[in-house]
Design goal:
With 710 residues, the protein is an alpha+beta fold. Helices cover 45% and strands 26% of the residues. It contains 29 helices and 29 strands. α13 crosses α14, α14 packs antiparallel against α15 and α20 packs parallel to α22. The longest helix has 23 residues. The protein binds ligand C2E and calcium ion (2 copies).
Length: 710
């Protein structure tokens, strides 16, 4: 069947009909794709072709108009007067097109099954040029209207959609597709979908694989990036399907483009949370691990040396405790920014915990010496630049860093990232042990030291307090040269490790929390000693005993209860006991610390601030807490009276103590010059130091300082 595409075909058809015999006419009319009705000039249907019969649901030429259900609207409210229209066509043959879309309903059907049609009449003249027939062409619009509805649906969709013809030219882009691509329908219609892919789409897989799955599986779907213009880029899922006829000839390609920028952003956010540090935006430990492993995997191929730099702020804990976490956080952010700016662009900078940063310098060089020089130069650059003054909330403070460097060879195997971090960490700790503010490159002997630390930890766990530990006492002298007080200093003699100085084991015992048990033991023994000496020698003047309290011990929930228990048990008078606390303790958890201190003071204990002046003291705690004594740190005493800065510091501490009515102990006094200077400044200060005595066992202390005074 051939479809009458335009008037000319109808006109030649009319000519054919005119010449045909009556019995042939039906056949000729039936060969049309569309419906045809031939009316006489009296408007009697002479011929209804099969298409028209099917559309109009009637073949009855006698009762044609009565049976016809033709409406102007789909809802069947307004019947279309076909007879009147045909009359008009007869009288105005030049105006024979009916512009309306009409709806035909089958006699036994409802509106849903209405078929849209368009009518056009062709007057037919006989040889004498008289109008004797009217041919009506009925065009079924179902498919066209369906396509339009589909297009409207497509346009209503938020997803971009396009349909191509068999050659791949984009014939139907929907509204969203035009909007996403920034291309108008005309521009798109001149393009195949492949032209468009090449122009705007960045695939995550090779182009060939897309084509392959399209041709073999009939569809492809994947994440892409669309660059509609240089400033309009977004992430999307693109699905392309191929439609074929039953002979597998391509008919159309259909594309659907879904903007997934939101999902993509959410996913990046999740990734950011999982792999990045919230505070500084740097990588976190997990990401460092991943990248280290990936680097290790590449090493055999690249044969390059790689370095891991570990960096830790000096004294950050004190700063954080004394100035508060908000300022600590700000400092970390500043430091993170500085590190980022100082290292090569391809280096990974991570924040591990607190104030610990790691920098992975990937594949520096194949030459070992060159790699070492480059890594060390970065490390020194970092150390130098970070040793600086930082202004935070109108406060300027100084900070420095300890840097550990670990350089690794290309022949390492995977799964060792933990160990590598451990080595860099040991190097960093060594830099810290050496006084901080320096760079230290890993040496294998550090593993030995770490092993010793572990041994010490184990030894502390199994230590027999009464057998291995001993209290030493160091006198605090008044202006008349009398030992009116003594600081208790702990000594550890381990059966195999030998003598271990407190500066070495106390931090480990704090880390492992054994300090709680040890500290309690110290207090117990010191209380007994204090009671005994005061009973024997304290009639005229009490002998005060100062005990160091570790922050870990102090922050234990039951600390005050334990102290009360010991007072009852030992029958000591708390008025002869001074508890030495560091500034950090007083500032952290202030409210809770305040309650504990008030409770202890109400029992009769005195509170001393140890190492005074070394913290970043806001000093506001001096106002809030009921304190009794300041201990000037040894570092300020060491260089007096020559160093004018230290002299000024000591003078101002003394002045402060005077206004706050606090007693003062100067510790670490080794020379007569130091003692003389201090005495000149303040008559009633107590002096503790090697000048008078090193810390000594109780018996010795008793002989030297208590019995002789009698
Ligand atoms: P600290 O509380 O600042 O103790 C003073 C330290 O200075 C003691 O070191 C003491 O021996 C030393 N010293 C005293 N006079 C001089 C001097 O003239 N010159 C020099 N160079 N040093 C002097 P030690 O005994 O090695 O203790 C070190 C630290 O260990 C103590 O510092 C304290 O923080 C801690 N510690 C000692 N015993 C205990 C304890 O029973 N409990 C707690 N929690 N910590 C303790
Ligand atoms: Ca002390
Ligand atoms: Ca001290």
């Amino acid at each position: 069947m051939k479809a009458p595409q335009h008037n000319r075909e109808i006109i030649s058809l009319i000519a054919e009909l005119n010449q045909a015999h009556h019995y042939q006419k039906q056949q000729i009319a039936d060969s049309f794709e569309d419906g045809l009705i031939l009316f006489s000039s009296a408007l009697h249907p002479r011929l209804i072709n099969t298409q028209a019969q099917a559309l109009l649901h009637t073949a009855d030429t006698d009762h044609f108009f009565e049976q016809l259900k033709l409406y102007s609207q789909k809802r069947q409210t307004k019947r279309f007067d076909l007879q009147a229209w045909l009359q008009r066509c007869l009288h105005h043959p030049q105006d024979c097109t009916c512009d309306e879309v009409l709806w035909i309903t089958a006699p036994d059907q409802n509106v849903k099954s209405s078929v849209p049609v368009k009518l056009r009449a062709y007057p037919i003249r006989n040889r004498q040029q008289q109008l004797d027939n009217l041919l009506v062409h009925i065009k079924d619009l179902s498919i066209q209207i369906q396509a339009e509805a589909q297009m409207r649906l497509m346009d209503a969709s938020y997803a971009g959609q396009f349909i191509t013809n068999a050659q791949g030219y984009i014939t139907q882009p929907n509204y969203a597709f035009c909007a996403y691509t920034g291309l108008n329908p005309d521009a798109l219609k001149g393009m195949t979908y492949i032209d468009w892919l090449k122009k705007q789409v960045t695939l995550k897989v090779p182009f060939g694989s897309v084509m392959e799955s399209l041709l073999h599986e009939g569809c492809w779907s994947g994440e892409v990036q669309i660059s509609a213009s240089s400033d309009a880029q977004f992430h999307a899922v693109l699905s392309v399907s191929m439609l074929t006829d039953k002979n597998r000839n391509i008919e159309h390609f259909i594309g659907v483009l879904q903007d997934i920028t939101d999902i993509h952003e959410a996913r990046s956010e999740i990734e950011r949370l999982a792999y990045y540090d919230k505070l500084t935006g740097l990588a976190n430990r997990a990401l460092l691990h991943n990248q280290l492993e990936a680097t290790l995997e590449n090493l055999p191929a690249s044969q390059s040396h790689t370095a891991l730099i570990m960096l830790d702020l000096d004294g950050f804990k004190i700063l954080n405790d004394t100035l508060g976490h908000a300022i600590g956080d700000q400092l970390l952010i500043l430091v993170a920014q500085k590190i980022k700016a100082l290292v090569p662009a391809d280096a990974l900078v991570a924040r591990l915990d607190g104030d610990e940063f790691a920098i992975l310098l990937k594949e520096i060089s194949q030459d070992a010496e060159e790699a070492q020089q480059s890594a060390l130069s970065t490390a020194y650059k970092l150390q130098d630049a970070l040793d600086d003054r930082y202004t935070l909330r109108n406060r300027t403070l100084h900070c420095s860093v300890s840097v550990g460097v670990y350089l690794f060879e290309p022949d390492l195997s995977q799964g060792q990232s933990d160990q590598l971090i451990g080595y860099a960490n040991l190097a960093m700790h060594e830099a810290k042990n050496l006084g901080g503010n320096q760079v230290f490159q890993f040496e294998s002997r550090l593993c030995e030291t770490a092993k010793q630390r572990l041994e010490m930890l184990q030894a502390l766990n199994h230590s027999e307090l009464d057998q291995e530990f001993q209290l030493y006492f160091q006198p605090q002298m008044n202006a008349r040269g009398e030992a009116v007080a003594a600081e208790v200093l702990l000594r550890w003699f381990h059966p195999s490790l030998g003598f271990v100085p407190p500066n070495e084991f106390i931090p480990i015992a704090e880390e492992g929390r054994q300090i709680i048990k040890i500290g309690l033991w110290v207090m117990h023994k010191a209380f007994i000693q204090a009671r005994a000496w005061n009973e024997t020698y304290g009639q005229q003047q009490p002998i005060r005993i100062s005990i160091n309290i570790s922050p870990i011990q102090f922050h234990e929930q039951s600390f005050v209860e334990l102290v009360i228990g010991l007072v009852k048990f030992t029958q000591v008078d708390p008025h002869v006991i001074t508890l030495e606390l560091t500034e950090g303790v007083l500032i952290r958890n202030t409210l809770l610390a305040l309650q504990k201190i008030q409770h202890l003071v109400s029992l009769g204990f005195q509170i001393s601030i140890d190492d005074f002046g070394t913290g970043y003291s806001s000093l506001s705690y001096l106002q809030k807490l009921p304190l009794h004594e300041l201990k000037i740190d040894q570092s300020f005493i060491r260089h007096i009276p020559d160093n004018t800065d230290d002299v000024a510091i000591v003078e101002s501490i003394l002045k402060l103590a005077q206004t706050k009515h606090l007693a003062v102990v100067a510790e670490g006094v080794e020379t007569q010059a130091q003692a003389d200077f201090l005495r000149q400044q303040c008559d009633d200060l107590l002096i503790q130091g090697y000048l008078y005595s090193k810390p000594i066992p109780a018996i010795e202390f008793e002989e030297k300082f208590l019995q002789r005074a009698q």
